[in-house]
Amino acid sequence: MSTTSIAQQPSALRAAWDKLKQEKPGMRIRDCAAALKVSEAELLATTIGDYTTKLEGDWTQLLERLPELGRVMSLTRNEGCVLENKGPFQKIDIMSQGPFKMATVIGPIESRVFFSGWKYGFAVEQETPRGWMRSIQIFDGAGEAVMKVFLQEATENRKGSDLEAYRKLVADFKAAEQTLDIEVKATPAQPTKAIGEVDKAGLISDWGSMKDTHDFFGMIRKHQVNRLDAVILAEGEFTYRLQKDSLKLMLDKASGEKMPIMIFVGNKGNIQIHQGKVNTIKVMDNWLNVLDPDCNMHLREDLVDSIWVVKKPTEDGVVTAIEVFDANKEMIVQFFGLRKPGIPELESWRKLVDGLPKV
User: Is residue 177 classed exposed, middle or buried when 0-12, 13-18 and 19+ CB atoms within 10 A define those classes?
Assistant: First the structure.
């Protein structure tokens, strides 16, 4: 979202936000930003010096410090889906250099981090009707949220987050200039060919030659094809469509059969992954929800435009995914049966997917 005239006047923007919150109590910051036609990061920046601290530094080092916080809640979202997981950050590996620098986070919090999408960082410490909320929040260059990490209170049987470690981390990464305004600009999309210009035969041939699921990204880059367009071109060979009610059916069956699954929710700077069983599945208004103690997923069903079963050949056998797209060809969420490299996917997952209603 590009900077607007009101965004260039932090005091005016803050006043407009305060007025909006008075008119619509409980409205979330993301929705307020959309209503005010600015980015979430621009809105949050107006609170610097009040309850927000601007952060700066080497983002890889900040990520590597997150295990110090202990048990937290990590939240990653895009326009159509939110994934929240609770637990500690554990094993973090930084890979590559320069614009392709990324990281893997393995453990109760599992992520694939792409630092090219990390532009702004904030520490937010705010008293709310539910008590103090403390978090580290990362945004991309367009001001869209990449990842938010919230401290957790102690419970009867679980230790809370380490508040002293949080305060030390904030002090170590506090920006020298605590200015209220930030500059945002839209992230350019990767150029792709029109679907009719793609070499369909070559794409299908390369698809059938995949040895690993990660080969898919190289394949679509090679053919300069949009991901959804690739899925459409492979229909009848490696993909087919599902009906809109298939997601609720899939989650209900996975819950009923106590089948461990994987949920991938991502944006330009982070892909967060849930691995394990899902138990409590509920629909509220337009939202399809997983509501478990250590995992929450919130999927906006009204933004779902198409649902696909996508099969990828690997050295461990075919891997079956359910991929969900919005009307802008953006991936909302992916689902898999739980699997590890070197191990074939669950036969029970394949049977579940095979039984879902096709278009």
Answer: exposed
Distance from C-alpha of 285 to C-alpha of 302, rounded to nearest angstrom: 10
CB 145 within 8 A of CB 138: yes
State phi, psi for 160 to the nearest 5 degrees.
Answer: -85, 180
Q: Per the structure block, which two tokens stand in for 161?
A: 């987050």
* Whether residue 51 has pLDDT greater than 70: yes
Report the alpha-carbon distance of residue 264 to residue 272 in Å, rounded.
6
Question: What span, in angstroms and rounded, lies between the C-alpha atoms of 143 and 182?
Answer: 9
Whole-number Å distance between alpha carbons of 319 and 312: 5
Long-range CB contacts (< 8 A, 24+ apart) of 283-286?
283/248
State the burial class of residue 287 (Cβ atoms within 10 Å of its Cβ: 0-12, 13-18, 19+).
middle
Name the 3-class secondary structure at 67. Answer: helix
CA-to-CA distance for 305 and 329, rounded, in angstroms?
9
Q: What is the pLDDT of residues 71-110, one digit of tens each?
A: 999 999 999 999 999 999 999 999 987 778 999 999 999 9
> Cα Rg for the chain, rounded, in angstroms?
21
- The alpha-helical segments, DSSP class H, found in 90-226 are 163-173, 200-208, 215-222
List beta partners, residue 334.
Answer: 264, 323
Which residue has tokens 């991936």? 331
Is residue 44 within 8 A of residue 52, CB to CB? The reply is: yes
**pTM for the full predicted model:** 0.94
Q: Judge whether residue 7 has pLDDT over 80.
A: no
Q: Rounded to 5 degrees, what angle do the CA atoms 127, 51, 137 make?
A: 95
Backbone angles phi, psi at 246, to 5 degrees: -70, -30
